Amino acid sequence: MKEINVLGVGNALVDKQFLIEDDILKEISIEKGTMGLCDSKSQNIFYKKLSENYKKSEDACGGSATNTIFALASLGSKCGFFGKVANDENGSFYKKDLEGVGIINDVISNDKGDTGTCLIMISEDAERTMSTCLGISANLKPSDIDEDLIEKSEIIYLEGYLVSSDVCNLTSKKIIEVGRSKEAKIAISLSDPNIVNAFKERLLDWLKEPIDYLFCNFEEAKAFCKTNDEELIKRSLLKFAQNIFITKGSEGALIFNHKSSCEVGGFAANAIDSNGAGDMFAGGALYLLTKGQNPEKAAKFGCFLASKGVENIGPRLEHKKYLEIYELFCKLD
Q1: Is residue 158 in a domain?
Q2: How far apart (Å, rounded) are the C-alpha atoms in residues 59 and 320?
Q3: Is 189 within the bounds of a domain?
Q4: How far is residue 167's CA from residue 163's CA, in Å, rounded to a whole number?
Q5: What's the pLDDT score for residue 156?
Q6: Is residue 30 assigned to a domain?
Q7: What residues contact residue 311 under an 8 Å CB cut-off, 6+ apart?
Q8: Splitting the chain (333 residues) into consecutive groups of 10 residues, what average pLDDT does each group show?
Q9: What domain count does the chain have?
Q10: What is the pLDDT of residue 316?
Q11: What's the CATH number where 165 sits?
Q12: Range of the domain at 188
């Protein structure tokens, strides 16, 4: 068995979260429930407006892959992370957060620029909409890759958001290539329908050879396959991955591979914030996969963990809560 269970690769962002009314979304060109990219000037203007009109919760270290790796580490997995933050206040906050749960990292860079940030707007129906300024995280270069860390890793998990940056896309392809040569399993999340629509060719480049695990929600699957027919989606995605996990919100998840297909139901939840639910699902599922459990049981725990996550504000839970939830799941199972 390898030393590191899961190595995450993603944009390192500090999340700034607001509970909003939907009317303010008309002022930005981002569809509700999706993620849009912006420059620092535009984000600063919008951040000021949000701050003047809505209450902000505490900042949190985010980024899709980071949220997933944080869940895994909190559950007890040995984890690492590739990403980049600036040598500034947000960057120090970010690194301290990773190290607090034992995640191996070397995220602080001497490159010029600011740590990336994400404005997360949570609507009254618990849907989240995100405005992201990637900052220095968009400059993760091939020279930043630690091949020794890859060699020690059982699974490498990459977020699809990385394709939006030319250099991060190049670096991600290199990480996948090195990972395969080191006999690591490859897991990828499609991340967001807008990302799929805008950068499908880059994602296809990542998937030239079938990967081990593909994570997405149903909207992302529809965007990738250009159909809402479930059977056609299954047939299409099996060309690119050995095991596919498609989340369906409160309805649960669809799991399939070349041998079988099944669905697991969702769990009742008093949802107030869907931000990070997919990341928690992936973290829960990967945790049981690294423990040798089958994809169906892994997905069931992923759904259970996500159901607890949406009952809280923010993309993650307190560190100690993850194991408490797993212990509760084991009693229910």
Answers
A1: yes
A2: 19
A3: yes
A4: 9
A5: 98
A6: no
A7: 269, 270, 271, 272
A8: 96 91 83 87 88 84 93 97 95 93 93 91 89 93 94 98 96 98 98 95 97 98 97 97 97 97 94 88 98 97 96 85 96 82
A9: 1
A10: 84
A11: 3.40.1190.20
A12: 4-10+63-113+138-332
Instruction: Report residue 208 as tokens.
Output: 């030239």
> Rounded to two decimals, what is the model's pTM?
0.92
The predicted structure's pLDDT at residue 58: 79
Place of tokens 């996969």: 289
CA-CA distance, 66 to 190, in Å (whole number)? 15
Distance of alpha carbon 60 from alpha carbon 15, whole angstroms: 5
Cα–Cα distance, 315 to 180 (Å, whole number): 30
Q: Supply the pLDDT for residue 333.
A: 67
The full 3-state SS of the chain, as one line of letters, equals CCCEEEEEECCCEEEEEEECCHHHHHHCCCCCCCEEECCHHHHHHHHHHHHHHCCECCCEEECHHHHHHHHHHHHCCCEEEECCECCCHHHHHHHHHHHHCCCEECCECCCCCCCEEEEEEECCCCCEEEEEECHHHHHCCHHHCCHHHHHCEEEEEEEHHHHHCHHHHHHHHHHHHHHHHCCCEEEEECCCHHHHHHHHHHHHHHCCCCEEEEEEEHHHHHHHHCCCCHHHHHHHHCCCEEEEEEECHHHEEEEEECCCEEEEECCCCCCCCCCCHHHHHHHHHHHHHHCCCCHHHHHHHHHHHHHHHCCCCCCCCCHHHHHHHHHHHHHHC
Our measurement of the distance from residue 176's CA atom to the centroid of its chain's CA atoms, rounded to an integer in Å, reads 17
Are 286 and 155 in contact by the 8 Å Cβ rule? The answer is yes
The answer to whether position 86 is within a domain reads: yes
What pLDDT, on a 0 to 100 scale, did the predictor assign at position 59? 82
